[in-house]
Fold each of these.
Amino acid sequence: FLLLRKFEAYGFKSFADKTELEFGPGITVIVGPNGSGKSNISDAIRWVLGEQNIRNLRGAKTEDIIFAGSTKRRPLGVAEVSLIFDNSDHALPLDYNEVIITRRVFRSGESEYMINKSLCRLKDIQDLLTEAGLGRESMTIIGQNKIDEVLNSKPEERRLLFEEAAGITKYKHRKKEALRK
Ligand code: ATP
Ligand code: MG
């Protein structure tokens, strides 16, 4: 399987300085006072994994995810987040033992995606992640309101979650693409 080794953020929301988190074996718990940026970490992870809806990141417009400045610091012009995965058992179909996925956005709205520091398309990242079961609607990140949503959802909606968890979704995507060609 795929192990997240390291998280790096710069200019994303409250992370005005380059922030690095290394994840060791076992479970990692992040604690801190209210407003210290815990949820911003999960927002950042969601974002780099391809989230396109700013509202799912608790913002209204793209600029809301770029460091907005404080009394002592000027706003930044760019937000960048990287996830460094241990790919030694090749859960991601790439010939590298370490895979770095990076997303960057400028205040102008221009966006960049990178795999191992080479520019790529969003689709390249989505395809790669779907391969490893980290699809867009996957249960990789479960937000506080998600539990209620699952309990209250219609059976057809809930079915999508089970399909994702069972690894069927990628085949459905492929079928759809194949039929389009
Ligand atoms: P809680 O324990 O209440 O859930 P938390 O640790 O999850 O708190 P977050 O929601 O991650 O806290 O962080 C909120 C903080 O991030 C707020 O102080 C907010 O001002 C700051 N913040 C959000 N967006 C930006 C931005 N674009 N620029 C600067 N700071 C930001
Ligand atoms: Mg929070």
Amino acid sequence: MPSRTYAQIVGWGKYVPSQVLTNDDLAKIVDTSDDWIRTRTGIVERRIAEPRETTSTMSIKAARAALQVADVTPERLDLIIVTTATPDYLFPATACLVQDALGARRAGAFDLLAGCSGFVYGLGVGSQLIISGVYQNVLVIGAETLSRIMDWTDRNTCVLFGDGAGALLLQASDTPGGVLSFTLGADGSGGDLLILAGGGSRHPASAETVAQGLHYVRMNGRQVFRFATRIMGQAAKEAIQAAGLKIDDVDLFIPHQANIRIIQAAAKQLRLPMDKVFVNLERYGNTSCASIPIAFCEAIEEERIKPGDHLVLVSFGAGLTWAATAVQWPVPLPAPRLSSWKRLLRRVGYRWAWFVSRLRRTYRKLNVWWGRAAGRIRGHNNG
Ligand code: ACO
């Protein structure tokens, strides 16, 4: 009988910008207070990208860290999925910018948009491409520069969000475990509850859309809150059942880090004690697609995940969407550190990828220039 293939998580990495914006800092910008934000959301501070940082630059840092943990070279990647609501551009995909910077020559690359649920959607897609035998190594990244789409005069939204990136590397393995199940869902009738309306085909960017602030996030917080408290527990239960597990089997619950009250409501619905729930939103706020992979990395750093543990990741977001997955963690921790010469080799590899990328761009420009010059010469000779 042919052996089954499993999708194991073998690498993990995160990047958060160094600039910290506290609740007190925000109280100087909008009519809010540290007390209001803490009690209504649990958030204390968040990270804000520097002007030179973008979703792709943060993704690249998280991706490199994940590849280093797994000791996998970029050439071995089959697919890169960047899940984000704040890509560098509408196109090209941010995943292609990451592919180029890593020098992942064999990899396909695309962005996936499913609101804050994007990362768990990405894990679902990536794991199935591995389990079906199509791919060996799939890198799933969640990254956001939400500070760029915030209306910094709107206290209903700007206090909630932050920037950052996280990445998990999925790899084919015959060791049972890894991504055991997933459930994905959507209810587009709630699309207008959390929306960035400008810049798409319905409201192409214009002076008018900018004047109306359509390039900023607009949210009906109360409605999203109601939806989230209902759906998180339900989605988690579905993923747990689909994996053949019981709620008591769950060792760590890693929910989307949007609001501590939403997380507590989900834990209550599942009858999970809060010591089985990973929370780090006080430090980062809601980083949308990046929230689960960043939390995952920190759970590993804090030794909250042990070999054999069953983890449940669950998210909700714009769309409206929801997604949950059950994972069994077999990797012995802590991960082995790469030797210094291997790390050096990696750095050289990334410089080389940068050089090759520049060379390709220059070659294309020269090609265009040569085509034009040849045309002119032909025209001159014919004339
Ligand atoms: N500071 C002070 N007061 C505020 C602030 C603020 N930052 N924001 C709102 N208020 C006021 C409101 O104006 C309102 O005043 P009013 O009663 O005079 O109208 C009052 O506080 C209470 O507002 P509520 O909306 O009832 O507050 P609530 O307890 O629901 O908390 C919150 C608001 C935090 C936004 C909550 O509804 C929530 O977390 N919703 C979910 C949001 C979310 O998770 N979004 C991300 C989705 S994932 C994705 O795809 C990105």
Amino acid sequence: TLPILLDVDTGVDDALALIFAITHPSLDVRAITCVAGNAPLAQVVENTLRILDAADAPPIPVAAGAVRPLLSPGRAASHVHGEDGLGGLVLPETSRVPESVSAVELMRRTLAESDEPLTLVALAPQTNLALLLRTHPEVVDKIERIVFMGGSASVGNATALAEFNVWHDPEAAAIVLGSGIPIFMYGLDVFNQVTVAQDAAASLATGGSPLGVVVGALLGNRVALSEDSSLVYTGLIGDAGALCALVEPESLRVERRPVRVELAGYGRGQTVVDRRRYSGEDVIYGGVGDWSVIEVALDVDAPRYAALFL
Ligand code: BDR
Ligand code: CA
């Protein structure tokens, strides 16, 4: 099994990712940290705890982290995830409570106490990760790899150029990209492709299993995407795809590419992915602080990931 730390802003598709991570036998979730993003922090924490109950998860420690980005104002995505972050899905109250320590301390402690390096999976704005790197550089060598959902080599969603997680806290993403830790980017190029058909989601929701009902309802979250704001079924598994990437990397086309985060102007929050043919990346990019050569997922066998998720 692969031991992971999960950082989330639950979030309809973060909820799908949490359920996937808890139920997949080859993933071992050691701790979950929460950050403001799709919804305000307190709502993210509550949603996360309730989803753990729905997935019948073991007692995994959960901690609250940053209430807003490093420099940007906090801007929740209620137009996508609803005011409650779960698209209106009402879950029973939970007796789970968050840890009394911060997300940064929970990550530090979990890394420090682990016998083996851990994979850090970020499905949200990277504020907590940036704070960890700046506060506790001594645990960096316990991070095997950072896998993040965010960024794009093509279209944006928060703006025409920028993906939401990176756009929400561009400085944090720039700190993470500049950390020197091996990084894998699961961006919109693949995120937008993996969808579950409406009839499959509906049969989950009516199929009788309590967890299936929750997953079906989350997949059925309708998003105001069109210009007249009519509600559209997407069936996106979203953040859960970044966990599929851990389990089944061979279903992705991945390239090592130089990537930088734009911090100014209209492009603020854009990940510029240099897809030119080039030789000798060390000659061109060596020593230049603002470009980092990372792994970028550019294409996915989408039906395969949808099936894996189901
Ligand atoms: C990302 O932003 C959020 O809406 C989703 O949870 C995902 O992490 C997509 O841009
Ligand atoms: Ca998310």
Amino acid sequence: MTPETKMETKATCPYCGVGCGVLIEHDGARITGVRGDPEHPANFGRLCTKGSTLHLTARPETRLQFPELRDTKGEARRRVGWDEAIDVAARRFADVINEHGPDAVAFYISGQLLTEDYYVFNKLMKGLIGSNNVDTNSRLCMSSAVAAYKQTLGADAPPCSYEDFALTDCLLIAGANPAYAHPIAFRRIEDAKAARPDMKIIVVDPRRTDTAAMADLHLAILPGTDIWLYNAMLNVLLWEGQVDQAFVRAHTEGFDALRDHVREITPAVAAEICGVKADDIRTAARWWGEAPAAMSLWCQGLNQSVHGTHNGAALIALSLATGKIGKPGSGPFSMTGQPNAMGGREVGGMANLLSGHRDLANPEHRAEVARLWGVDSVPEKPGLTAIELFDAMHEGRIKALWVACTNPAQSLPEQERVREALARCDFVVMQDAYRSTETAPFADLLLPASTWGEKEGTVTNSERRISHVHRALPPLGEARADWRIVCDFALALGPRIGRNDAARLFPYASPEEIFAEHAATTRGRDLDIAGLSYALLDAHGPQQWPFPEGATVADATARTRLYADGRFPTADGRARFVVPTGRLTAERADARFPLRMTTGRLRDQWHGMSRTGKVARLYNHVDEARIELNADDMATRGIRSGELVRVKSRRGEVVLRAAASDEIRSGQAFVAMHWGANTLNSAGANALTLREFDPYSKQPELKHATVQVEKAELP
Ligand code: SF4
């Protein structure tokens, strides 16, 4: 490649919710490198270890390059053409729909998809097929944060931005390890602390993570006790006169009930429940109360809980009670795990949502979406959420499943049950860029999708910022863009289920046309982006929502500081305090399963490792699946670091290498979520986790399961 043939294409990193801008270096035929986009406001040119090795993941031999089909379970799949693949998919889905009804089919999709892909999947299921059975792996990621925002602030609109890290005086990081999971956001936090050493950083996490290690105060609470900690902080704020009574009176509802609830939750009471010092709880509350600007940052540690919604609501209550919201450096900020979980929420790509942050349960919202799409109605019956969907499949009620860009046979809890469900499903389609996922063996039809570097569309990152992602190269082999596959399927399916309007509903020739329709559906909503277009994003770079028609880039700062006027998108304009309910954890440790296992991410791996697992240098940090244990627990069991151990829960078992860790206290254990089929016995952490979920968000408690550990006697 000569310097003249070197080209750069603007895209975003397809890993985490920070949404860093990347410049893909290529020669028109091959991706040769990647560098951070210095103009992107999420990262200003920086990339972490995962982002900076993206070009090394572009390996053709790992890709699914043409459709493969089998007629009978257990047979080897054979290569087929796209026409046959789409025809068979449409026939098999139509047969199920016509015989068993539309609720016998389901889509299980992904926060890795671009917004345009998400939009057409959603429209196909809810507007053409006539079911709401479309859910996503984002259910495992941020659905509790969505529910918490809606219950308290009235809309799923995280009000903060990354620039707030540099403006806050107190940052409370709760159930998150951005040093590993959101590294470039963490760099910005480190920069803020370096520039203003008086800024207080509080980290709440059962483990002493790299994030906790840099905190001014680390509250190593026992798993599942989050609500009691935040309620006790509110107790202190009340007792010490740090509640902003004027803000509470003018802009909120329900404070008296929460005040009565937390009256008895003193620091001493919470200290007992949470396993931390009462004085440390007082210190955290004082730092929050005395700081001119205070913000919280949370992620899966709060969300993946049987009371994930109320974890978030209890944290948000601290912002509302002190009036520290809608101001620079203040507010509750949930990070999304995935690169486009936020975009999926915007198009309503979940079983309980509709386009433009509308609610399926709201008849007016259903009527609005039906009118916008030009269909008679959107079905009223709630769709099946992730765990419910696989339960229904296990029971034989879902007979055809379409999986796109995700790997449920690795990532859902109670893996044995999930794999049984997949094996029982009459017809499974897997649309993916990679062929060697744990889900692939269950697929009757594999459809090759284009991937990072080959796709155009938009993504929205954790700070509500929409980026236009460009395509550097054509799709590999016969792979096609995800939105194109969905539209081709819709056109083939429609006439077979008596819907001759499929061509009118799916007329798109480009992702830009889909984006324009999506933007129009948001008009007048809290996330109004009717003023955005690909052309504007190209001319002015990524933009935060809202961006209504007539808005300008110049007025962004004032427009995107949500709730600055103290008005919230509820019926009366007031935010709500929520009195929390719920048990500590679904499972309690006992004599048989005495260790409390949490799960989480490693710095250099991503999800089920379909990309990062292909890059040798990303194993330098941690090179195999392992269980981290406190040295005391290892000594009690006669286990030494490096030995193989058998880890059992009530649902399954897995063999892992033991590693002593001083990051966790006795009685706890940690297993990274990434490994699956590549562990010693082809099972990862989710062989052990359980499917119990939050009643509002339906997000499962992936952060806690009780286990026993013993030396492995291998055959
Ligand atoms: Fe990619 Fe996240 Fe790293 Fe940014 S911080 S480069 S988005 S993995």
